[in-house]
Amino acid sequence: MSKYTTGEMAKLCSVSVRTVQYYDKRGILVPSELSEGGRRIYSEDDLQKLKIICFLRELDISINSISEILQEEKPQRIIQLLLEQQKQLLISEIGERQNKLKVLKTLSDSVKDDKDFSVKSIGDVAYHMKSKNKLTKARGVLLTIGIIIDIVEVATIVLWITTGMWLPFVIGMCICAIIGTWVSLYYMKRVAYICPECHEVFKPTKREIFFAPHNPKARKLRCTCCGHKGYCVEVAAPEKNEN
Question: Do the beta carbons of residue 158 and residue 237 sit within 8 Å?
């Protein structure tokens, strides 16, 4: 089995020799043996223990708390929970950084391709990227309900044609109309639009949204801020408009 001096332990764990000596003094990393000259000699298990101590210290856990954890009957359970917590934290941080990277890439491509790209345009893109997840969720609900309505319509029409029973079709259409109205109102409540002229985020009336010409990403509307009429980019509504 490998044996290590204080200096070797310090080097392998990227800490100072004084730190290793301090942990010995505090009784949380006692060397497995002493040489004839009184030098501290550490085992492989001691090395792994030091790595755990260093990890716990990085989590800002005090020396006294570390001592208590290591004295537990099964300290590995507590350490496992801390490791899992740290893993989830890192996963969350990675997700946030990936989202920021997407925003930076979009901004970079837009600046490169558009000679008239302005500071306000950067704000539009940033807002659109920030609201993308909420907008995707709202569109997902709209699409799902739309598919269900289509299935009900087709099924009742087929039933009518094959059996002559028209009542299920009428009832189905009434239910679909009610659900369709609800999901439309749900969607309209959760979207807003960015005016390409004044770059303000505005909320048109539900009637304007319903009747306006549109494509998957924009709708032809009149801006309530500057009066400009044209295609405006669809984004998720600000929080205050969702309540």
Answer: no
Tokens at 64, concatenated = 């006294």
**Cα angle 231, 235, 239; round to 5:** 140
Distance (Å, rounded) from C-alpha 180 to C-alpha 147? 11
Q: Which three-class secondary structure state does DSSP give residue 162?
A: helix
What's the one-letter identity of residue 120? K
pLDDT tens figures, 161-212: 999 889 989 999 999 999 989 988 988 988 889 888 888 889 999 889 988 8
Beta strand 201-202 with 40-43 is unpaired
Statement: residue 5 has pLDDT above 80: yes
Q: Tell me how far apart the alpha carbons of residues 110 and 197 are, in angstroms, rounded to a whole number.
A: 17
* Pairs from 66-69 (Cβ < 8 Å, separation ≥ 24): 66/28, 67/26, 67/27, 67/28
Q: Residue 102's closest CA among 126, 119, 124, 68?
A: 126
Task: In whole angstroms, give the CA distance from residue 82 to residue 72.
Answer: 15
**Looking at residue 222, what DSSP letter applies?**
E
Q: Residue 46: name the closest of 68, 70, 69, 65 by CA.
A: 70
Q: CA 108 to CA 125: how far, in whole Å?
A: 11
- Are 171 and 180 within 8 A, CB to CB? no
Distances (CA, A) of 56 to 63, 65, 80, 213: 9, 9, 11, 59
| Per-residue b or e along 87-106, where b marks 16 or more CB atoms closer than 10 Å to that residue's CB | eeeeeeeeeeeeeeeebeee
**Quick check: 50 pLDDT over 80?**
yes
Tens digit of each residue's pLDDT (9 = 90 or more) over 131-152 = 667 778 888 888 899 899 999 8
